[in-house]
Amino acid sequence: MEIIQATTLHTNEVAVLFDAYRTFYSQAPDFDGALQFISDRIKNQDSTIFLALEGDEIVGFVQLYPIFTSIGMKRAWMLNDLFVLEAHRGKGAGNLLVERSRQLAKDTDAKWVMLQTENTNTGAQRLYERLGFEKDTDYLYYYLSI
Fold first, then answer.
1. What is the DSSP letter of 110?
2. pTM
3. E runs forming strands in 1-146
4. Fewer Cβ atoms within 10 Å of its own Cβ: the N or the C terminal residue of the chain?
5. Taking the alpha carbons of 31, 26, 50, 37 in that order, is the dihedral positive or negative?
6. Domain 2-130 has CATH 1.10.3300.10
7. Residues 20, 127, 141: CA angle, nearest 5 degrees
8. Which N-terminal residues, if any, form the signal peptide (predicted)?
9. What pLDDT, in 10s, does the model give residues 120-135?
10. What's the Cα-to-Cα distance from 122 to each of 9, 143, 146, rounded to whole Å?
11. How far apart are CA 39 and CA 44, in angstroms?
12. Buried b or exposed e, range 108-137, using 16+ CB within 10 angstroms
C-alpha cells in the first residue's frame, strides 16, 4: 500500500470517496457537491489530502485542515476526515493515513493533531487510541449553527 498526496488529477476519485464518507455519517449522497467541495479544497490549497493506494486503486483518504494553537503559539492540524472503503478495511490503510498525517505535523513543526469522531464510531476510536491519540476530558466543544 502506498500513501500519496492528492492533486487536481485525483479530484474525481477523491470526490467519490468523500461522498461515501459523508453518507457513512448519515448525509444524503451528493456527488456534485462533493466534487465541488474537494475541487475547491485542492485548488485553493485549503486542506491537505492524502490517499491510500492499493495498486492503482484509491482505497482511502485523510483530509487535514491547518489551524493554530494560541496557547501553544504554533501551527496545528485538524484531522477532519478519514475514510477507507469497507472492502479494504483491516489492511492497514487507516493506520498508514494517520501516520502520514503525523508526519505532516512533524514536517510543519505543528504542536498537535486533533480530531473528532462520533461516539458510535468505535472502530475509528480504537485505531486513534492505538496510534497514540488521547481522548480529551478537559474541554467541552460547542457549535453555533449558521
1. -
2. 0.93
3. 2-5, 48-54, 57-69, 74-84, 113-115
4. C
5. positive
6. no
7. 75
8. none
9. 888 889 999 999 999 9
10. 33, 23, 29
11. 8
12. eebeebebebeeeeeebeebbeeeebeeee
